[in-house]
Structure formats: structure tokens, C-alpha cells
What we know:
The complex is a heterodimer.
Chain A: H1 11-19, H2 22-44, H3 49-65, H4 67-80, E1 83-88, H5 91-104, E2 109-112, H6 116-120, H7 123-129, E3 133-136, H8 139-146, H9 163-177, H10 189-206, E4 209-212, E5 216-218, E6 223-228, H11 232-238, E7 242-248, E8 252-253, H12 259-270, E9 278-282, E10 293-299, H13 303-307, H14 323-327, H15 329-334, H16 345-356, H17 362-366, H18 376-380, H19 387-401, H20 411-423, H21 427-444, H22 467-470, H23 483-490
Parallel strand pairs in A: 1-10, 2-3, 2-4, 4-7, 5-8, 7-10
Antiparallel strand pairs in A: 5-6, 6-9
Helix pairs in contact in A: 3-12, 9-10, 16-19
Chain B: E1 10-12, H1 16-20, H2 23-35, H3 51-54, H4 59-73, E2 78-81, H5 84-92, H6 94-101, H7 104-113, E3 117-119, H8 120-127, E4 140-143, H9 147-153, H10 158-164, E5 170-172, H11 187-190, H12 192-209, E6 213-216, H13 219-231, E7 237-240, H14 241-246, H15 258-270
Parallel strand pairs in B: 1-2, 2-3, 4-5, 4-6, 6-7
Helix pairs in contact in B: 4-6, 4-7, 5-9, 6-7, 12-13
Amino acid sequence: MTATFVGMPPFPQSARTALADTQLRSNLAHATSTIRGKRLRVVGEVEDWEQLRLAGAAIKDNTLLHLDEHLLRLEESLTRQGATVHWARDAAEACAIVADVARKHGVDEVVKVKSMATGEIDLNEALAAQGIAAWETDLAELIVQLGDDLPSHILVPAIHRNRAEIREIFLRSMAAAGRPAPDGLTDEPAALADAARLHLREKFLRAKVGVSGANFAVADSGTLVVVESEGNGRMCLTLPEVLVSVVGIEKVVPTWADLDVFLQLLPRSSTGERMNPYTSTWAGVQPGDGPQEVHVVLLDNGRTRALADDVGRQALRCIRCSACLNVCPVYERTGGHAYGSVYPGPIGAILNPLLRGVGVDDQVDSLPYASSLCGACFEACPVRIDIPSVLVHLRSKVVDAHRAPHQRLPKTEAVAMKAAALAFGSGARLGAAEKVSGLVGRLLGGGGRRRLPGGRKQLGRLPGPGAAWTDSRDLPAPPAESFRAWWKRTGGGR
Amino acid sequence: MVCKSDRMRVALMVTCINDAMFPETGKAAVRLLRRLGVDVEFPTAQTCCAQPMVNTGYLDEAVPVVRTFVDAFEGYDAVVTPSGSCAGSARHQHSIVADRSGDPALQRAVSEVSPTVYELSEFLVDVLGVEDVGAYFPHTVTYHPTCHSLRMLGVGDRPTRLLGNVRGLRLKELPAAEQCCGFGGTFAVKNSDTSVAMGSDKARRVGETGAEVLVAGDNSCLMHIGGLLSRQRSGVRVMHLAEILASTEEAGTPQEHPVDAVHDQDTVAHGAAS
């Protein structure tokens, strides 16, 4: 696998490429509108949905306030039940732990449950570098892996592909990875699922080591929880002899009873189902039942950095449902690859900068701006993450990072903002600026050759940064007289 | 008309974009409020709500602007603005800027002024208790609920209730109305390709309604959608809600291009050659 998010350009450039992909636009418009409709229907059925959201947010917030205590309790519960707990500060440490377990068992392959945390740390690439193949078994992850592609959605990583493309990927790539696609494969969903089932079954039956993430980790019972639709995850969680789970430290919930709230919130928000088909739970090692060697890697990788941000820490409530992606008008048009991370969409636009820090990488710094701040994400979020407010907060962190003396101030924008702040500092100064704009309007719109619908004069194409507007949109000429000047001249029209 | 506003001191916060680019909206708001018995004032010290700075990340630059804002609007019972977005900025973001300033006086002033700010339809329906403003506008229109009025302020169906009582007006439902038009402030230029992709879909839906006028409560969004509708030679114009609600049968159909008309009147009045 060679596909990588590393080195992706900032959002505006990658979005431009994505926006020109007509197949992508069509696939995403169809998929997101379908899943939006499903979600709205099942959320609408729940009378106390808002109370559930508040409860979900409160449980997560309270847990995050005492995260250290809950994590230690989780470690103790897991260890007591025969699991080995590892602590990983970053991606490299986590990958090394998983590779070490695999090497100790002398395997050259592992089967994987769909997991965001392992995608975040590029585990597959790290294992491949050690000669260990990591087989994705979630259908969508399999499509991405076989297509040497990148995931573009948290829940549906191959959302950017339609069934005709999936058929081609299976025909082209399954043989090199194991059992080939059947002859005469059609693009009927049942036929595609059958091909994947046959291909994956070999791997399930053969693999000695399974790798997973976890949706939740219950501190008091030491239970890990994986929520899924296909049952392929359960195969990986039960058939192999050894199971390694990479779990972000924010996944901990204090008690089993807390799952009550999240197992209502998650399926309705993510797949638009009342209940997900498979919920697997396991606590350490149970003799004669499932993997007999169980490892849990508790992963920081920037989460404590996010926790230290008093506005941004609410992003750690995220239960990876994808509701914010599906309702986002930006995501719907650019798709997930433009965000340059396994976490795309509105949550990715805040989570990536929070986990990785701002002021270092232009691509990361571009993400908080990849939003029109329309607020649809906040409305849909089952744990009430106020994504627009966090975006605005992170924009100020990006600007502040570039204020530091050793940094160049970012381009003309900073100059423009300082100039605007000066003009907006007093009504008199703004009035003077408007006189100039009125004059410009008369000069540039004075020809009157072009008029907007309704008859108002318009400006021609603007030079410089203004071209970003006028390349695609007409613009009215500034009026000869501002409101302020009119009020002064007429005494408010009396 | 009897109004609760009899003894209220009401200020018009016209917004910087209306002041500089869309003065007809401000004038319409003044006409409308006066017709409803509100002696609205225009504090000339006002400039901008600081949203362009805040939403681009320039909090330090926003501090003097918010200071100017509270200086201009302190002491009024209500501050009315023909913009959902600017009302949202004043109500939900000024405290962030005040906190950044570290100035307790500014924090206090913001906490006093912010709750007095109303978007126009909120002020008409909630404060004045009016849903029929006596307007006349014999045209087919469709309404786009702008994101900040819809989701930040929660104005709900107030604008469409007001429009529903305008005589002669035929209101067509806009498909996927609640989806963002893609303006987004500096998003419109920083991510212009995505912004235009969103706006193009909005413009297409406006076209599907067969309306001749697209109406909304924010001229910033209308400048974006209207710019696309114009570039497409769509034959659909955009108008602010205030301008439609200010229209009356007595005043006749609104002028075709009122901004230029003002300019022409000026030149006639001053006897200047144009």
C-alpha cells in the first residue's frame, strides 16, 4: 500500500481537485443525502433526544475532567482479567507495541477490525515495514485497501466509490491479496458482498492475530466495546488466538451503565439505525472463549494536548459517528480526502489541529478555515460538540501562532484585518472609507454597461484577492452614498 | 398601531456591509420601523460587529471594534439589525473578544449590550408583537433562511410568517432551504472554489422555484447567491427581507434599481453633471 495523506496540500488546493471530480461529487451527493434522511427519521422518533445528547456530553465531560483516575481504573480492571495493558505516547510507540506482539507470535499477517485509531497512527504501513500484512476486514476498508486508496469518511471509508467502481477494484485487486473475485462478478450489492465474504473468510480462518480499536472502554468492568454492522469485526475479535486493541484514552467511560446513553446515540447518528447489528464486548481473557492473549494499547498521540485546550477539549467527546460529515455542505462537495487525514469533515477540521497543534504545518492550519460556519454539524452532533465555536477558536490559535516574533505574519490578510480594524475603530473613519468606496463605485461601475438582475450597476472583475470573488460571482458597484451619509444628509429620511 | 415600543429607545445597527454596500436595506428598515411606531435612532459612532475579524481568527484586531460597538449601543433598550449573522456575532461572540481583551469594563459592557441585540424579524415578532406589517409586494419570492439566523439565533419561521402576511406576495418553498449557501465570510474567498460549488447548488434550487426574487435576512449571503444568479443571467434578483416588508401599495412598486436612483437624485438635486 502506497497511498498516504502525508504531504497533502492545504485544504483549498486539495478541495479544488476534489470539486472537479464529477464522479466523486455525484457519489457523495447521493450517499450523504441518503444517510441524512435516514438519520433524521430515526432521531425524530426519540422524544428525549436532546436529553440524551446532554447526557452523552455530560458523561464525556465528567470523565475527561478525571481522565487519569478513570484510565488507571481501566488498567486495573483489564489487568485483573488477564489483559496486558500498554501505554503509548504517540503513533510510533503504539505501532511498535503492536508489531512486537505480532513478531513474538511469528506471524506475517494480522486481521483488522475497522478502527479509526489504527488509521490515525498509520499502523498498516508500520506493520508492512516489518513484513507483516494487515488485512482490513470491514467491507469499506477492504475496498479502500484493495484500491490502494485512502479512506474518505469515518464510518463509510469508501463512500467516494460507487458499486461499479467497487466491482472493478475487486476484479483488479482481489487475486493479489488472496482469493480472487468470482468469475462473472456483477455490481449487484449482494454479489459484491458475497465476493468480499469469500475473500475474507480465508483470512479470518487463517489469522492468528487480530487487531482492533474500541468504541468504548468501560473503566469499572474492564470491558472493551466494538460496535459494527457487518459481523466481520466480531470474526476478528473471536477467531484469532491473540487480540491487540488500540484505544484512544478518550474512549474510556466510567461504568457499564454509561453505555446505555451512547448505544442509543451512536447507531442513530451514524448509520441511521435504531440499533447496530453487532455489539461485541470483551473483558480481558476468558478461558476457552475467544482470544487467549489480549493486549490493550492506550493511545495518547495528541489527546492530552487537546485536553489542555479549554475550548477545544470538547472534541474529545467525539464518538466517531460521522453525523457531522453527512450534514456538512463542505464535506458533501469536497469529500474526505481534501482534509488530508483519516478524520475528515467538521470533526476532522477541529480534531486534527487539536491533536497535532497549529502553527507548524500549513495543511493542518488550513483545516479550521475549511468551513462556512453554517452550524449544521453542531445541530447533528450526538454529544453536542460546538464545532463552529471550536473552529473559530482554532482560527484564532492559527493566527496567534503566526503572530510570534519569529513567524512572518500571514500575507495580505493580516494587513487587511489590521486596516479594517482601524477603519472600524470609529464611525468617522468608516465614513471616510465609504466615501472612497463610493468614488471607486462611480469610477468602476460608472460605465453602467453591466447590471445585476433588478438593475443595479455592477463592478467589473477585480484584481488581486478580489478576483477570488469576481472570477465566479458578480458584485454590485458600491453605492454613491453610504447609509451613514444618507442619514446625515436627510436626517434619517425625514 | 399600538406598540410595546412606546417608551423604548431603539437603535438601528445597520451593519458595515449594509452601510457601505446596501444602504437601501438600512433605509427600508428605518421606513418599516417608523411605520410601526418605532422612532429608531442611528448612533453614528457605530461601525461593524467585528465578525470578519473574529471568524478569521484576528481576536486582537476585533477588540477595538467591539469597544466601538458597545460605546455606540450602550444604553439603548433594543438594538435592531437587518442581519442574522451580525446579531449572532453580537450575541454569541462579543464575550469571546471581551475575554481576550482582559478588560473588565469591556466585559461588563458586552454583557449588558449583547442581550439587547435583535435581528429584525425577532424584533418585529417578539418585541413589537407584529406579524402583519402592512406591506404590499406583488411578486413571486422564495426565502433562504441564512445559517446564522436559523441555527445561531433560532429565528425559526418568523421571517416566513412576516412574508406570509405581505399582500400580493406569492411565497414559493425553496428546496433544501436549510443548507448553507456557501458564503461564510472570508470562507467565500479563502475557499472560493468550495464556496462557489455550494452557492451554485443554492442558485440552482432558487431557479427551480420559479421565483423572481430571492429574499433573505442577510445581505452578505445574498451578495454571494445574487452574484452567482447574476453571472448566470438567471433573471432572479435578490432582496433583503427589510426591503420587502417596507414596501407598501401607497409607495408603489419598489424602484427597479434604487441605489442608482439615489445617486441620480443626488446629481439632479446638486445640479451636477454626471
